[in-house]
Amino acid sequence: MEDGVLKEGFLVKRGHIVHNWKARWFILRQNTLLYYKLEGGRRVTPPKGRILLDGCTITCPCLEYENRPLLIKLKTRTSTEYFLEACSREERDAWAFEITGAIHAGQPGKVQQLHILKNSFKLPPNISLHRIVDKMHDSSSGIRPCPNMEQGSTYKKTFLGSSLVDWLISSSFAASRLEAVTLASVLMEENFLRPVGVRSMGAIRSGDLAEQFLDDSTALYTFGHKRKNWKVRRFVLRKDPAFLHYYDPSKEENRPVGGFSLRGSLVSALEDNGVPTGVKGNVQGNLFKVITKDDTHYYIQASSKSERAEWIEAIKKLT
Q1: What is the pTM of this model?
Q2: What is the pLDDT of residues 133-176, one digit of tens each?
Q3: I need a labelling partner for 1 at 20 to 30 A (CA). Which of 143, 191, 239, 258 fits?
Q4: 129-223: which CATH number, 1.10.10.10, 2.40.37.10, 1.10.260.40, 2.130.10.130?
């Protein structure tokens, strides 16, 4: 990494004038966040833009776009808003952490507090979020949603923040209320929980890392569901056996994060308005779809029409 660079990598940025989303290469320095266009895998200089961090406020997680749970929002001193999307929760949190550090660079106490917050919470090794969620849904020992009132409105199938904290402790998933609140915040970031009503939504908008989830008998929550979101990936097509692997461009190591066999699969272009139901996100054209032999559907966006045609052609030869 170059001198003075705190972090660099891909983020998907919302356009300023036209609200479309484009992958850009970001470089974080002590007082600015620079972003560059990429062409052919190389960054185009000079930078396309810069965000001055002095006086900036950061909101993470930012839930203003329901279909983009991995957003960070930066608001500059002059009230310009930037929305940046990461490709995973770890990556989003790492960016938010470094940017917050850069914003508060002149206040070492605040930075130290962030380090403690980030490093103190670890899920016990034998417990996965999925296990907790399965247990929450269990009809005999889980948490039972029921109608709850808030400010004169009734919300069906909800539970209180404080009841969830009680349940996490009594089920031995957390040792203290603070730990339970942190765990509930993680479940919320992963969309297993959703805030409902004025109190809990307000806590999220305030954007304080430690206060996302309220241990409170007036804050309401409900079960969420995992969302499908778009990620920037580098694809490699292999011939023997026919396989399409994909890599996370923000990670150094050269191991694919996933892939699938192309034997017996179908590939087709999608019309520019043909974003399928259940697939969320404001996606700008050049989509194609691969249906594998076991009927898994993959949606991939190329950077141009001609590139999409090349990919489809190359995959068809191998199916």
Answers
A1: 0.42
A2: 888 988 888 999 999 988 788 888 899 999 999 999 999 888 88
A3: 258
A4: 1.10.10.10
Instruction: Judge contact between 302 and 284, C-beta under 8 A.
Output: no
Geometric angle at alpha carbon 195, from 193 and 198, rounded to 5°: 170
Which overall architecture, per CATH, does domain 234-318 show?
Roll (2.30)
Mean pLDDT in the chain? 81
- What is the token pair recorded at 54? 């002095």
Domain regions of the chain by residue span: 5-118, 129-223, 234-318
pLDDT in tens, 172-218: 888 888 778 888 887 887 678 888 888 888 777 665 544 578 888 88
For the residues 252-276, what does the mean pLDDT come to?
A: 76
Name which residue leads in pLDDT, 117 or 263: 263
For domain 5-118, give the fold: PH-domain like (2.30.29)
Nearest to 232 by CA among 11, 82, 35: 11
CB 223 within 8 A of CB 193: yes
SS3 of the chain: the string is CCCCEEEEEEEEEECCCCCCEEEEEEEEECCEEEEEEEECCEEEEEEEEEEECCCCEEEEEECCCCCCCCEEEEECCCCCEEEEECCCHHHHHHHHHHHHHHHCCCCHHHHHHHHHHHHHCCCCCCCCHHHHHHHHHCCCCCCCCEEEEECCEEEEEEEEHHHHHHHHHHCCCCCCHHHHHHHHHHHHHCCCEEEEHHHHHHHHHHCCHHHCCCCCCCCEEEECCCCCCCCCCEEEEECCCCEEEEECCCCCCCCCCEEEECCCCEEEECCCCCCCCCCCCCCCCCEEEEECCCCCEEEEECCCHHHHHHHHHHHHHHC
